[in-house]
Amino acid sequence: IKIKDIKLISFSQGPGLPLSLIQGMKFAKEFSLKYNIPLIGVNHICAHLEIGKLMTKAKNPVFVFTSGANTQIIAHEGGKYRIFGECLSIALGNALDKFAREIGLGFPGGPKIEEMAKSGKKYIELPYVVKGMDVEFSGIITHAINLFKKGESKEDLCYSLQETMFAMLVEVTERALAHCDKDEVLLIGGVAANQRLCEMLNIMCKERKAKFYAVPFKYSGDQAAQIGWQGILEYKAVRRLEKLEKIDIRPTWRIDQVDTIWIK
Predict the structure, then answer these.
(1) What is the pLDDT of residue 223?
(2) 3-state DSSP call for residue 70?
(3) What is the pTM of this model?
């Protein structure tokens, strides 16, 4: 495509690390000014949800958002996206990466742990921490690292970690399904590529007569398509944009603070 074909520029306004967000915003503003193209800032997490719906055709699901920095159970209720459960400390992706580094698997750790878990021969009991609708992963990782230092095998620990942490997520997801009276679950974020997590969520959904969807691998991690699509949705809904000089980053912008004007 050519510059003249671009009718809208969309960038991630938040949440995220301020320095990264500033660089993205600066580039987007410069591009907007240079070519006189409208600019819109969008919520990064919201973009994950909407690209997931677009790519799977899910209509009104309970979202299981699992990435490096985020683990949240989200659903659209009462005219906005609401968080029904989340991690209390370290998120699922970062937890897996931390354990992988400690046992010498390197980074990123998630795919390597998934592969090593297939060779696990026994389940090792680990802390199972669900507090209401929230989950806690940090203690599990510390305990697993200590067990590794005492001689437990990498394979068994990888298998046990996945089974324990994924079961916690499935439990709170099932409760959210019942609470919201929905019949769809959509797994999004980078950890959506894990086949065992998909399998466990799918089993739960079948038992509840609900449909399970997982965002395609190409769109599971952070990518430009999700930001562009979110910008299109919002622009089509309002047809008006903030003045360029008023647009700024929002590092702590939570999903439940987003005005979902584009959802009918």
Answers:
(1) 92
(2) coil
(3) 0.93
